[in-house]
Structures are given as C-alpha cells and as structure tokens.
Amino acid sequence: MKTYNVKKVDDNQMTINGKVNSPLWGQAILLKDFSSPWHLDEVNPIEFRSLHDGHHLYVSYKVYDGSLHIDKTGAVFKI
Question: SS3 breakdown of the chain: % helix, strand, coil, rounded to 5?
C-alpha cells in the first residue's frame, strides 16, 4: 500500500484563493502516479498536493482532461 506524507506548514500562513499560487505549495510532495480502476489505458495527467498546519488540511489537485462532465444543471463555472 502506498503512503503519502502531508508536510506541516506554520499556522496562518496559507492563503486560500482558488489559484493554488502560494509559495507554500512548493513544500508539498507532488503525487502524479494515478491509475484508473475502470480502464487499463493510461489516464490523463493528475497532480495532487496536500499540506496541513495542525488545524487545517489543504488539498490541491489538477486534472488535465478536455472532456470533463459536470452533472449539475443551471451551474455557472468561471475560470
């Protein structure tokens, strides 16, 4: 079984803005070796990072996929 070590950062240092551009993310371990339980084909790239400050868990993931399906009507998504 794989393990992922979540690095600890100082309290009140992480800025949550939806852009994942805090320099603290440079301390997180990058996990990229994902596979699909449904398909044997190689999956599109996925990047996962996580940090914690002892009180909060911060998670970032990027999925590179041009054909995402969001099953929600009436939603507005801005990038």
Answer: 5, 20, 70
